[in-house]
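Hi support team,

I'm filing this because I wasn't sure whether my run with heme C finished correctly. The job status page said complete, but I'd like someone to confirm that the output block is well-formed before I use it downstream. Pasting the exact inputs I used:
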Amino acid sequence: MGSGGRAQPCLFLAVLAVSLSLGGCKRANMYSQAKSDNWDRSNFFPNGQTMRLPVAGTVPRAEPNVPVAQPAVITAEMVERGHQRYNIFCTPCHGRAGDGQGIIVQRGFPQPPDFASDQMRRISAQTIYDTITYGRGAMYSHADRVAPADRWAIASYIRALQLSRGVAVASLAPAERAKLDNAPVEPPEANSVVQPDAPIGATTATAPGTNRNSLPPATMSGGGQ
Ligand code: HEC
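And here is everything the job wrote out:
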């Protein structure tokens, strides 16, 4: 018993030694080669850095939910950015008018509430932000595809949608009325040509004021949250 008990650790060590030496050979082949380490100077990239920066707008997969404080004011750029992101990510269910009649809903998906309803007009921008982050009911989280700052932009655009839905055309100022009358009527799915990673202003189908669901940005900037 005593001698057998000693033999096993020896055998184990022998196997370990052999496997380490084999592993060492592999490592020598693949690991020990001419290459740059993270912080090495690079002669290849113009800025001299080996490490690359993430592409602008990258959403970190590890922690996409680091909260961004609510911007103090809504700018026209923010609304337009939100318009673009909303059209990409929210219209399939919520519809471009925010009435909950998106294309998926028309084919049987549970219908979201109408953003123009009294209840939805009362929810805070924070609730919209949180719903995008965590999802709600049948709506899945959009945290992995809508960056935190864009969640506020979308919330501001939903406010614009809500405002536009309550406005009587007859109450518009003449200049705004003229813009509305001259705006081209979009075909139903025109917004789907927007590329998900297109920069602000790169929308091909929708320029500010051409969508009857949105008020021109100029009238948005004074809006609350
Ligand atoms: C796959 C369909 C789908 C998509 C895409 C979707 N939603 Fe929803 N959303 C729903 C449904 C369904 C509900 C109702 C959930 C419930 O109350 O059970 C809902 C509810 C909501 C609510 C109401 C939350 C509340 O407090 O009652 C908000 C706000 C909202 N969605 C915002 C968004 C935004 C912004 C986007 C785009 C970033 C989006 N949704 C994308 C289906 C969707």
